[in-house]
Amino acid sequence: MPPRMPNWRALKWRRPSPGPPTHDVGDPFAVARERMVEEQIAARGVRDERVLAALRAVPRHAFLPEHLGHEAYLDTPLPIGSHQTISQPYIVALMTELLGLDGDERVLEVGTGSGYQAAVLSLLTREVFTIERHADLATHARQVLARLHCSNVEVVVGDGTCGLAEHAPYNGIIVTAGAPHVPQPLLDQLAPAGTLVLPVGEASSQVLEVWRRTPAGLEREEVTPVCFVPLIGEHGWRDDVCA
Ligand code: SAM
């Protein structure tokens, strides 16, 4: 049975109160999702009520292969095909919180994957562009996002290490794959006062970094160790990085 969707518009503009009811009787995973938010996300220090409300609202199971739906609210990344993963819920929440969205931003996500992170962002900001190098993943994500009425998300196929110049500048950029260094095009496409959140480091382990464009120039902050699949492209890793 398809998941019952929240009232996206109500959640999007309600601030700072947390948003819609979560125990929807039509959603068999509502209780598991609430526990995920309380035990994996809020308990680890994510405080932004809008972010917590978005994580409560988005049906993570809808973005997974059907046979993995029952694992959707576990504290872990999960496979989505093409050797890629949907990120751990806590990391999705943390990176989203670090973007510091108010509701009126243009956001670029690099690494659409399943589309789950894009759906979370769609509740928290005005428009989301998300770019994925695997066309099959992009097609699937587009279908799920359409089914959930995430009408402010556009999925693009391409090399996100080059950004998406035609819609730049972005108030927020989030990269959901591990980069060897911060791709220069992403810094170039960051608006004044914009925030870029990305994992930087080795192919198998990285540090989550936040870059902010301030009047005094770019500022960089290191947040926490993370582990993402590699960001592959012209300004990232070579395709054979894991060979
Ligand atoms: N955000 C995703 C979600 O919510 O399911 C999870 C992303 S997964 C950890 C990383 C994704 O980045 C993969 O789908 C991978 O194909 C993609 N990717 C890697 N390099 C890329 C690039 N240069 N441009 C676009 N996507 C890229």
Structural class: alpha/beta
Question: Do you know the CATH architecture of one domain?
Answer: 3-Layer(aba) Sandwich
What is the number of E strands? 9
CATH structural fold name of one domain: Rossmann fold
- Average of the residue pLDDT scores: 92
Q: Name the ligand types.
A: S-adenosylmethionine
Alpha-carbon distance between the termini?
A: 40 Å
Continuous helix count: 7
Biggest beta-sheet profile: 7 strands, mixed
Outline: globular
Describe this protein's structure:
This protein has 243 residues and is α/β, with parallel strands linked by helices. It has a domain at 76-226: 3-Layer(aba) Sandwich (Rossmann fold). 26% of the residues lie in helices and 25% in strands. It has seven helices and nine strands. Helix 6 links the parallel strand 4 (127-132) and strand 5 (153-157). The longest helix is centred in the middle third of the chain and has 13 residues, at 135-147. The protein is globular and about 50 Å long. The chain starts with 7 loop residues before the first helix and ends in a 17-residue tail after the last strand. The model is unreliable at 9-23 (pLDDT under 50). S-adenosylmethionine (SAM) binds at residues 84-87, 110-111, 113-114, 116-117, 131-134, 137, 159-161, 176-177, 228-229, 231-233, 236.
Give the helix/strand layout.
Elements: H1 8-13, H2 30-41, H3 49-57, E1 78-81, E2 84-86, H4 89-99, E3 106-110, H5 116-122, E4 127-132, H6 135-147, E5 153-157, E6 170-175, H7 184-188, E7 190-201, E8 206-214, E9 217-226
Parallel strand pairs: 3-4, 3-6, 4-5, 6-7
Antiparallel strand pairs: 1-2, 7-8, 8-9
Helix pairs in contact: 2-3, 2-4
Bound molecules: S-adenosylmethionine.
